[in-house]
Amino acid sequence: GAGVSQSPSNKVTEKGKDVELRCDPISGHTALYWYRQSLGQGLEFLIYFQGNSAPDKSGLPSDRFSAERTGGSVSTLTIQRTQQEDSAVYLCASSRDRPSPTDTQYFGPGTRLTVL
Amino acid sequence: KQEVTQIPAALSVPEGENLVLNCSFTDSAIYNLQWFRQDPGKGLTSLLLIQSSQREQTSGRLNASLDKSSGRSTLYIAASQPGDSATYLCAALEGSGSRLTFGEGTQLTVNP
């Protein structure tokens, strides 16, 4: 079946502009995650959605970052007033249910964001 | 706060060699430890998942072990091939279960 898809694959923007990144999880997966991979750094957790529960936003680096998940499926990560340090690859992942010892997360190909 | 470290950062070997990638983590209260592969421009592919109650998992030429008490995991790749060239990431799923904490990865190059 189809995997996790993300769009756009690449985004170049000017400092100060807002950007929206989209994630389509695997159909039927109730859990959705956003991670960021910056040059020279590991992947860092940003936000986690589980069904209709309030999201875990504890990884968002500033109030310029926000995310929503409509209808329990598609998610949008929005970065307002982008800064150069926001340049990174943003990865989305989904899993069947809430995290468990036996389940893994399935990752999309990522969106490479470059802020000039 | 969980911290995950991977050694070495980069590794270059000739085809056919057996090799070991190392991962250490600071908080042993984990649900599982996972190994992923990342190819340039692509997302992550799950290779092996070891539950906290398990000691090892095997898939083909790959074997991963977990020692929770010492906070260590190793990924063993037998008879390496050029197609194994990629970045290998280990990640710990925290006990409260909402996030994976990743190491910075080992960039592996297998030379023909």
Describe the structure.
In chain A, about 0% of the residues lie in helices and about 45% in strands. Chain A has strands at about 5, 10-15, 20-25, 30-35, 45-50, 65-70, 75-80, 90-95, 105, 110-115. In chain A, strands 2, 4, 5, 8, 9 and 10 form a six-stranded mixed beta sheet that branches. In chain A, strands 1-3-7-6 form a four-stranded antiparallel beta sheet, with no helix packed on it. The N and C termini of chain A lie far apart (about 35 Å). With about 110 residues, chain B is mostly beta strands. Chain B has strands spanning about 5, 10-15, 20-25, 30-40, 45-50, 55-60, 60-65, 70-75, 85-95, 100, 105-110. The model of chain B has no long low-confidence stretch (mean pLDDT about 95). At the A-B interface, strand 5 and strand 9 of A face strand 4, strand 5, strand 9 and strand 10 of B.
Biggest interchain interface, per-side counts: A-B, 27 and 27 residues
Report the order of strands and helices of chain A.
EEEEEEEEEE
User: For this entry, what is the oligomeric state of its chains?
Assistant: heterodimer
How many strands appear in the DSSP assignment of chain A?
10
The number of distinct helices of chain A, counting runs of at least 4 residues, comes to 0
Radius of gyration of chain B: 13 Å
Low-confidence stretches of chain B: none
Helical residue percent band of chain B = under 10%
Helix-residue proportion of chain A? under 10%
Termini of chain A, distance in Å?
Answer: 37 Å
Structural class of chain B: mainly beta
Number of strands of chain B: 11
Rg over C-alpha atoms of chain A, rounded to the nearest angstrom? 14 Å
User: For the report, how would you describe the main beta sheet of chain B?
Assistant: 6 strands, mixed
Instruction: List segments of chain A where confidence is low: pLDDT < 50 over at least 5 consecutive residues.
Output: none
The coarse silhouette of chain A is globular
Roughly how many Å apart are the termini of chain B? 41 Å
**Succession of helices and strands of chain B:** EEEEEEEEEEE
